[in-house]
Amino acid sequence: MQATQMSPATMRQKCRTIENYLVVWADANIDLNNADCQPVLTQLRGAVNQVSTCTTATECIQLLNDNKEETTFVISSGALGQHLLPDIHPLPKLNAVYAFCSRKQFHKE
C-alpha cells in the first residue's frame, strides 16, 4: 500500500480548518483551578485553537454574539444549557450544543 503525500497547500488548509473552530465550555460550577478541569481543557485545546469558558448564560451569549469568524461548539452543563439553548439556537456560527450532565434521560425529552 502506497502512502499518500499531502502538498504543503493541503497541509496548510487542514491546519487552517482546525483554527476556525471555537469551543465554549459553559458551566456555572466550572473551577479553572480544579485539577479535574485542567486535563479536559488540555484535551480540548489539543483539538481546536480556541477554547473559552463561561459561568453564566449572559457571559456565554455575549461570547457567542461577539464571534464572527469561528464555527462554534458549546459544551454546557445541563442546568445552564436549559437557559442557553433558546437564546443561542439561531446563531449562524453555532454548529452544535452538547449537554454535559448526569441527568441524561431528562435532556432527551
Short description:
By secondary structure, the chain is of the alpha/beta class.
Structure description:
With 109 residues, this protein is an alpha/beta fold. The chain has one domain (22-108). The chain has 5 helices and 4 strands. It has helices spanning 8-19, 37-47, 57-66, 78-88, 104-108; strands at 21-26, 50-54, 71-77, 94-100. A 4-stranded parallel β-sheet has the order 2-1-3-4, with helices on both faces.
Beta strand count: 4
| Number of individual domains | 1
Query: Strand fraction band?
Result: 15-25%
Helix and strand sequence = HEHEHEHEH
For the largest beta-sheet, the strand count, sense and barrel status come to: 4 strands, parallel
Q: State the distance separating the first and last CA atoms.
A: 48 Å
Any low-confidence stretches, pLDDT <50, length ≥5? none
Shape: globular
Mean pLDDT: 82
> Whole-number radius of gyration?
16 Å
Overall SS class: alpha/beta
Helical percentage: 40-55%
Strand order of the largest sheet: 2-1-3-4
Count of discrete alpha- or pi-helical segments spanning 4 or more residues: 5
List its traits.
single chain; 109 residues; alpha/beta; 4-stranded parallel beta sheet; 5 helices; 4 strands; 45% helix; 23% strand; globular
Topology:
Blueprint: H1 8-19, E1 21-26, H2 37-47, E2 50-54, H3 57-66, E3 71-77, H4 78-88, E4 94-100, H5 104-108
Parallel strand pairs: 1-2, 1-3, 3-4
Helix pairs in contact: 3-4
